[in-house]
Design a protein that fits this description.
Length: 427
């Protein structure tokens, strides 16, 4: 017990120096923890970024774009409007290209999309006529709208993979109100009755008049030969350009291959890479700083007490006790620095993260698949700055390891030092 007491007293022998050392160690640990938390958020946030940026590539017939250029002709009537409206089938692709698309590297999913545009005739209704949209989509991934906007469920459920050929639909809020159709009700799709399982909002008037059914259901109802377009989800925004180029090469000039989001992706990708690199560099620098500080301090402590070591050896202290003393001193310093580091992380960590991310965050305008809807998205923001128990324990183990590493030099010096040599030593 005397060795422990002596070690702790020695830590505070020079109070001013000890306080400075503890603050430096605490800052190093705090920066390291902050950078580690930021790094932990980067990978998860990158997935959200990819979703927010609509990492979709659209394959469609060459020369066609949006609702302004239709393939096929007019047929039937839109849901709920009978003979008072006509409907345009937008484009037709050969489904045989789907396997070719699926073989391209970094393609995450492929969804076929068939679109029927509702166009009321003049005087068809007593009020303002509404242009609607009926689309069939493979419900195996994200449900999106040809008209742009984001599908946000207001009630019910979304379509999923189990609905591939089912007679079910989700409908826009405006369509539900105008046609007085709610959950559990039915919509007529060219003679096929489909049950409403969800009601959504989209952020734009056109999307809110849409009816979305599984692709196979719409295909059967209108005897469509193929999809209007094919949506290809890429597994990372960084591979968008590569996938586009590979699809253009594989499919040829009969198809247009374009990104769903009309924006420059390079600055966003560069921003993500810059943030990741900066946070990793910050973690490494903070860790190296802590190691250097610990070693430097313990070297100074050893030089100041070489005569003391000689006296201890001369009076019969074993190397093991001297080694234990230095280990305890170093670990005590590191542990106090750890507590200060935790406090600094809790107080200043969010500001460190914000400072790191603030310069790189931006909010580009993103256009929807049909060019109708724009919105902003910040690449990396609102970091979840949580100091988890696992991270605290990891930092504690790391701090103790730093204390031991910092003790290596004085321990080796103490073992090799002869009592007579130490007693003659003069600072």
């Amino acid at each position: 017990m005397s060795t422990v007491n002596r070690s702790i007293r020695n830590v505070f022998r020079n109070k001013a120096r000890t306080i400075v050392v503890i603050i430096i160690i605490g800052i190093s640990i705090g920066v390291f923890l902050s950078m580690t938390i930021v790094n932990g958020n980067i990978s998860a946030r990158t997935v959200q970024i990819a979703e927010g940026l609509d990492t979709m590539v659209i394959v469609r017939p060459a020369g066609s774009y949006g609702p302004g250029q239709f393939g096929g002709g007019m047929s039937g009537g839109p849901p709920g409007q009978g003979s008072n409206a006509t409907q345009a089938t937008i484009g037709v692709l050969n489904e045989s290209i789907v396997p070719t698309i699926e073989t391209v590297a970094h393609v995450k999913s492929v969804q076929r999309l068939a679109v029927q545009m509702s166009m009321p005739t003049m005087g068809a209704t007593g009020g303002r006529p509404s242009m609607g949209l009926t689309q069939g989509l493979d419900p195996t991934g994200k449900i999106f709208l040809f008209s742009g906007g984001t599908v946000t469920l207001a009630s019910g459920r979304n379509l999923d993979a189990s609905d591939m050929s089912s007679a079910v639909a989700i409908i826009g809020g405006n369509y539900s109100s105008e046609k007085s159709v709610g959950l559990g009700g039915s919509v007529d799709i060219n003679g096929t009755s489909v049950q409403v399982v969800g009601i959504f909002t989209s952020g734009n008037r056109f999307g809110n008049n849409a009816v979305v059914v599984p692709y196979e259901t719409l295909k059967a109802a209108y005897s469509i030969e193929g999809p209007s377009s094919i949506y290809v989800e890429v597994d990372s925004i960084g591979y968008m350009d590569a996938v586009e180029n590979q699809l253009k090469s594989a499919l040829g000039e009969d198809f247009d291959v374009v990104a769903a989001s009309e924006m420059n992706r390079s600055p966003i990708q560069s921003s993500i890479e810059s943030i990741s690199a900066n946070s990793q560099l910050g973690s490494i620098v903070a860790l190296i700083t802590a190691v250097v500080v610990m070693i430097f301090v313990m070297v100074l402590v050893t030089r100041e007490r070489i005569r003391e070591i000689g006296v201890l050896k001369a009076v019969g202290f074993k190397n093991s006790k001297i080694i234990s003393q230095f280990l305890i001193e170093s670990v005590t310093l590191a542990s106090i620095g750890f507590v200060v580091g935790i406090a600094l992380t809790m107080l200043a960590g969010p500001y460190i993260a914000s400072g790191l991310l603030g310069a790189s965050a931006s909010a580009p305008n993103i256009q929807g698949p049909g060019g109708f809807e724009g919105r902003s998205f910040s690449p990396v923001s609102n970091i979840d700055f949580t100091l988890s128990l696992d991270l605290v324990l990891y930092a504690l183990a790391l701090t103790i390891a730093l204390g031991i590493i910092g003790s290596l030099y004085p321990i080796i010096r103490a073992i090799k030092l002869k009592p007579a040599e130490a007693l003659r030593y003069d600072e």
